[in-house]
Amino acid sequence: MTTSLNSTAAKENTNIIPFLPSGNFYFTHGIQAFQKRRFNVAVKWLKKAIEAAPDEPLYACQLSVVYTEIGSYHAANQLLTEVLARFGKEYVDCYYLMANNYAHLGLLSDAKKYAETYLEQSEDGEFEEASKQLLEMLESVEEEEDDDEWAFDDEDDLLIYQETAFYHLEHEEWEQALSLLDEMMHLFPEFQMAKHKYAYALFMSGKQQEAIDIEQEWLKNEPENIHSHVNLAAFLIMQGDREEALLHIHLLRNVYPMHSQQKLAVAETLARAGFYEEAVDRFHSLKDRQVTRRRVYYKWYSISVYHTGNPSKALELWEKGCQQFPTLSKEEGPWKEY
Fold this sequence. Notes:
The protein is an all-alpha fold. The protein contains 19 helices and no strands. The N and C termini lie far apart (77 Å).
């Protein structure tokens, strides 16, 4: 009896058709997760789709879009580069997607090159208008690159104010900085950076809650204001509230500003939070002499490279900083745990 049952079961098993998921099966689930903004899940499904069908470039392109959405711009461009290497002109949209990623990374010349390549090789492509707008924006940024938020060449009075304010901030002369920044906020209300620097000087002078209130109120009106997130992250770290600070820091980790002042601010904040490798990458990308001669540049770049295993470069940066800013020499050095 047992033998008969086993024999019947064996015959039934031979009629079972195994389900082998195709690349399209995984891809569909990946798209659904992406549309629901479940990005980590989308990445897993799309990776499975690529494994199941490595010769289907659409899957890699879609995964790059997810990476762009979560701020993993380098990973996105690596995928797109591989697609272009294998399929070339069949997937010219990759050029625009790469241009967009490079723009987010602040690599403007690369962004411009790929946007122009897309327009040259596509014929009435889906991203033609977006590419033209990107190029216009890049050209505008290039024109203003030497005219950063703290450099208004056409307004001599503002230039004098800002340079004097920076001197006091760099030398930790908080009361003098507050007085000057207060004047600037009244004389140049459109110069928003003065308010953020005022909040920073206020915090450092001991009025911590007032400084936090200023930035939190600002953030209600502009939830994506980089300098508010930078200041609040710094304030919370200095108060020892790392968990709350990380809410701001995680947002900044996916932000790649185009203005040098904002680039420096993000790099400094990542260093304060202990994300040293990311901070080193951000500091390394800074080329503007306006920011590479700042006290915070020398201090936090030095700390970051020290904690990523380069003590000789750290010491070199620290010594340069001390030469320009004697108050820095009163601190313990890049080896101190911050």
